[in-house]
Amino acid sequence: MENYIVSARKYRPTAFGTVVGQQALTTTLKNAITTGKLAHAYLFCGPRGVGKTTCARIFAKTINCLSPNGEREACGVCESCKAFDEGRSYNIHELDAASNNGVNEIRDLIDQVLVPPQIGKYKVFIIDEVHMLTPAAFNAFLKTLEEPPAHAIFILATTEKHKILPTIISRCQVYDFNRMEVSDITNHLKNVAALEGITYEEEALGVIAQKADGGMRDALSIFDQIVSFTEGNITYDQVIKSLNVLDFESFYKVADLIIDKKIPDLMLELNSILQKGFSAQHFMGGLASHFRELLVASDERTLSLIEASENVRQRYAQQVKRCKPAFLYRALKICNDCDMNYRTSRNKRLLVEIALIELAQATEEGSGVRPKTALRPIFKATTQKVAAAQPKAPQTPAPKIQTTTIVTPPKAVSTTVSTTTTPTFKGKPQTFSLRGGLMPQQTKVSQEATPTTPTTPVITEVRPFSEHELQHEWRYFLNKLPREYIATTGRLKNIEPKLVKEWTGHIVFESQPVADCFLAIKSQMLDFMRTRLRNAEVDFTFEVEALSEPTKIKTPREHWKELLQHNRMIQRLQKALGLEYY
Ligand SMILES: [Zn+2]
Questions:
Q1: Is the same domain home to 214 and 168?
Q2: Of 176, 198, 220, which residue constitutes the final position of a domain?
Q3: What's the angle, vertex CA 514, arms to CA 510 and CA 515, rounded to 5?
Q4: Pair (82, 171) in one structural domain
Q5: Among 15, 441, 491, 543, which residue has the least CB neighbours within 10 Å?
Q6: SS3 for 517-558, per residue?
Q7: Domain of 55: which CATH number?
């Protein structure tokens, strides 16, 4: 049996030029070498398997090379290079701090630092996982790190930069290694496959690269596994099967079912995915990413942002032709909501199923098919109490619908509203800035809004929007209200304004107190809506739906009084006999 070497070792880069995906960093290191401006300590930070140790070794080899070539790389033929390549160089010392993290190991290292190199100019000390050193070891090391002999160079590597003491960081030149791009890894895998004489499907390598999550070492060890599993012929199906990943195809299929509103098939598909052992949350996360990619694919210019093979990109571009942008926004929102509620949900599967159904219904944008949130009955109960507390003249039956339409002219907002009732809200709105709270998320909007005074945004355009967008902003605004408005939010959240004519939302309130709540925040709401929807003519009209007289249980005394009122014979009888109800 021939000597088998894993790919991660066999194809480990031996020169800066062959390091994958860290171009900027290797160039800086090479420049430092040519100009002779070497620091005595470096700190390499970054996730695992992205080339920290590899770069440290190449660096050590290159600075010790006796005759570096024109490309500023190690020659590979001089005595020093040979010693490096054969692993017998005394100029490189590696300490794995994960297992050698005590004071004694560091003292041994310090002893070695003092001995000058036999061949070459520098001794390089690589301390891997340096954050694992004990505090005592760190302290023992600090002095040497600060004033090392001229021939010593330290390269500290860590995956967790935040655990490194500031005193260490300030003594090092820091290099941050990036996670590798999927395309970089895929290309490298292609090269390795070609060198090894392995046939492959490009999508299959893409899946491996994605699974490795930016780490080349992981990618190569997955690659090795797959090679032995598939006997040198890597196909997409086999990769999916052996890695047990939820792949593009599954999400593509689910998205198709959603677009076609095939809810029973969706349920079956979800079931089969769960049976394969995937968690429902993982699935929803993947689906959200799928919709994100679709959104990106909807524009030719952003298509290249999708980290996938050309083939897959084109399939995204194809599928997005079947979706409206509004649907994609809504879909992302639904996926996100589901994700947020997942942890607290008792029936997680049901939650995901509901989300899928909502997604399928969201394709019919604005048709009102989407089920309303189920808080309405509770809401009704409280308003009845309020209505009952207000005395009403019994003789005059209230008209079924009492319409108060207030049309506020665009832009002159505050005048009509500030004169209205509810003293509790008066003056309060000035104490918070909705726009301020929204700035981080909506940079585009805030750029438009900031140059003016904080209360009146200058929106002059009249951008068309859908009823759905209006309702979305309505809820968004209410959710953003400060805590003291919690009652307002609660009352208004389940009401949905309807877009009756161009840019005017119409709201039906169930009682006057609810309408008053709305009036108290109307001007802020309008400002907000106009900015967010980029439409200066947004306005609201509303009406108050009178409740039918609540049926009240009468006491015997009330019965008596009613009888007296309506029946003259009883009135006479009462007078004649001097009757009184006790
Ligand atoms: Zn050399």
A1: no
A2: 176
A3: 90
A4: yes
A5: 441
A6: HHHHHHHHHHHHHHHHHCECCCEEEEEEECCCCCCCCCCHHH
A7: 3.40.50.300
**Which residues, in sequence order, are CB contacts of 565 under 8 Å at separation 6+?**
none
CATH code of the domain covering residue 354: 1.20.272.10
Based on the fold, state whether residues 406 and 537 are members of the same structural domain: yes
222 and 262, same structural domain?
no
On whether both 420 and 507 belong to a single domain, the answer is yes
- Tokens 């008209």, residue located: 399
Structure tokens, 516:
């008053």
Q: How far is the CA of 11 from the centre of ligand 1 (A)?
A: 20
132 beta partners: none
Residue 370 is assigned to a structural domain of this protein: no
Condensed to tens digits (0 to 9), the pLDDT of residues 520-575 reads 888 888 888 888 888 888 888 888 876 555 556 778 888 888 888 888 888 888 88
Which of 124, 148, 176 is the last residue in one of the domains? 176
CA of 117 to the centre of ligand 1 (A): 15
Residue pair 16/26 in contact (Cβ under 8 Å)? The answer is: yes
For residue 442, the model assigns a pLDDT of 41
Compute the distance from residue 191 Cα to the ligand 1 centre, in Å: 26
Residue 142 tokens, joined: 């600090």
Give pLDDT tens digits for 190-231: 999 998 899 999 889 988 988 887 889 889 999 998 898 888
Nearest-10 Cα torsion for 177, 183, 184, 190:
150
Q: What is the pTM of this model?
A: 0.53
Q: Do 463 and 488 have their domain in common?
A: yes
Q: Are 6 and 223 in contact (CB under 8 A)?
A: no
Q: How far is the CA of 77 from the centre of ligand 1 (A)?
A: 5
Supply the pLDDT for residue 392.
45
Strand-pair partners of 96: 128
Integer Cα distance of 508 and 199 in angstroms:
66
- Strand order of the β-sheet with 498-501 is 401-402, 539-545, 504-509, 498-501
Task: Please determine, for residue 450, whether its predicted confidence score (pLDDT) is greater than 70.
Answer: no
Question: Strands 152-158 and 173-176, how do they pair?
Answer: unpaired
How far is the centre of ligand 1, averaged over its atoms, from the C-alpha of 23 (Å)? 22
Residue 15 alpha carbon to ligand 1 centre in Å: 11
Distance 380 CA to ligand 1 centre (A): 84
Same domain, 489 and 340: no
- State which residues form the domain around 190: 182-243
Asked if residue 559 and residue 435 are part of one domain, the reply reads no
DSSP 503: T
**What would you measure as the largest C-alpha separation in the chain, in angstroms?**
134
Residue 512 forms part of a structural domain = yes
In a domain, residue 562? The reply is yes
Q: What is the 3-state secondary structure (H, E, C) of 21-77?
A: CCHHHHHHHHHHHHHCCCCCEEEEECCCCCCHHHHHHHHHHHHHCCCCCCCCCCCCC
What amino acid occupies position 51? G
* Range in 385-389, 436-440, 561-565, 567-571 with the lowest mean pLDDT: 436-440
Count structural domains, the chain: 5
Please check the confidence at residue 401 and state whether its pLDDT lies above 60.
Answer: no
Residue positions counted in the chain:
582
Residue 373 located in a structural domain: no
